[in-house]
Amino acid sequence: MPPCPQVSQTPLEESMAEQEPTAEQLAQIAAENEEDEHSVNYKPPAQKSIQEIQELDKDDESLRKYKEALLGRVAVSADPNVPNVVVTRLTLVCSTAPGPLELDLTGDLESFKKQSFVLKEGVEYRIKISFRVNREIVSGMKYIQHTYRKGVKIDKTDYMVGSYGPRAEEYEFLTPMEEAPKGMLARGSYSIKSRFTDDDRTDHLSWESSRARLPRLLFFFFFGLFAFSRAAPAAYGGSQARSLIGAAATSLHHSHNQQRGIPASNVGSELRLQPTPQLTAMPDP
C-alpha cells in the first residue's frame, strides 16, 4: 500500500497557527472570566399560577380591571403536554446584509452542527428572539451562552429577556445593537453551549453547537444563543475572548473567496474581501 500523501499547510493556515493562544493564555482567560454565581443573594418571589392571581381580591373591581389589563382575556392553553414557554425562532438582523438570518428552534437542533453561520467582522447586528408563553407567567427569562476553546470556557454572555404572561400571539425580544468583533486572535475553533432559562432555573431550551473549524468558523453568539444583560467582561477575558471569536469570520471569508477565485486586499490591519456578502450561511463539507 503506498504511503499516505503529506498534507501541507497554506501560508494562511501557518500564520493562523502562530496566533493560536497557548494553554496558559486560555487558562488566564478562564480565570479572569470566572463568575461566582452563588454570590448573588437575589431570591425570586414565590411563583403563583394565573388562577391564583385571578382569585386574589376578586371583589375589588379596580384591581380586577388592572389584572385584566396586564393578563388580558386570552384563554390560555390547558394542554399539559405543551411546554409553558416555546422558543420558536432566533434571527440575526443586520442592516447591511442581504436579509435576516433565521434559525427555526422548533425542529432538530442537531442539524445546526452541520451548518456554519458567518458574520463579517465589524458589522453591526441585533438578535431577535421569538417565543410563546402558553399557560403561566414566566419571570426573569434569559438566554445564557458559554463559549469554549480547547475545552476551556473563555466567555459567558447573558441577555435578560424579562417576565411575560400567557397570550395567543408570539412575543419578540430585540437585543441592543452589537458590533461584530475583529482581530487576528479571533481565528480558531470554538464550541458554544446555549440555554434559555428563567428565575426558577427551568431549562426551556438548550443545545450545544458543533465545534467550528477553520476556515469555516461559526460565530454562535446564539447561535449559541436568549437572554439578556451582557455580563461585564474582565479586561483580558471577555473583550478579547469576543475578539477571538469574531475575527475568525475574516478567515472564513478569505478561504471561501480564495476557492471562488475572488482576490482579497489588505487595507491597514483589516482584511477586506470583494465582493463578499456580509451575512451568509453555508453547510460544512
UniProtKB/TrEMBL annotation:
Record region (Disordered): 1-25, 255-285
Source organism, top-level taxon: Eukaryota
Record's subcellular location: Cytoplasm
GO biological process, one term: Rho protein signal transduction
Keywords of the record: Acetylation, Cytoplasm, GTPase activation, Isopeptide bond, Ubl conjugation
Transmembrane region(s): none
Pfam families attached to this UniProt entry: Rho_GDI (PF02115)
Gene Ontology MF, one: GTPase activator activity
KW Acetylation (keyword) present: yes
Ranges of biased composition (kind: Polar residues): 1-12
GO cellular component, one term: cytoplasm
Family classification: Belongs to the Rho GDI family.
Assembly behavior: Monomer. Interacts with FER. Interacts with PLXNB3. Forms a heterodimer with RAC1. Interacts with RHOA, the affinity is increased by three orders of magnitude when RHOA is prenylated. Interacts with PSMD10; the interaction increases ARHGDIA association with RHOA, leading to ARHGDIA-mediated inactivation of RHOA and ROCK and prolonged AKT activation. Interacts with KANK2; the interaction is direct and may regulate the interaction of ARHGDIA with RHOA, RAC1 and CDC42. Interacts with RHOC. Interacts with CDC42. Interacts with NGFR (via death domain); NGFR binding decreases the affinity for RHOA.
Summary of the function given for this chain in its UniProt record: Controls Rho proteins homeostasis. Regulates the GDP/GTP exchange reaction of the Rho proteins by inhibiting the dissociation of GDP from them, and the subsequent binding of GTP to them. Retains Rho proteins such as CDC42, RAC1 and RHOA in an inactive cytosolic pool, regulating their stability and protecting them from degradation. Actively involved in the recycling and distribution of activated Rho GTPases in the cell, mediates extraction from membranes of both inactive and activated molecules due its exceptionally high affinity for prenylated forms.
Protein name, UniProt field: Rho GDP-dissociation inhibitor 1
Source organism of this protein record: Sus scrofa
Phylogenetic classification of the source organism: Eukaryota, Metazoa, Chordata, Craniata, Vertebrata
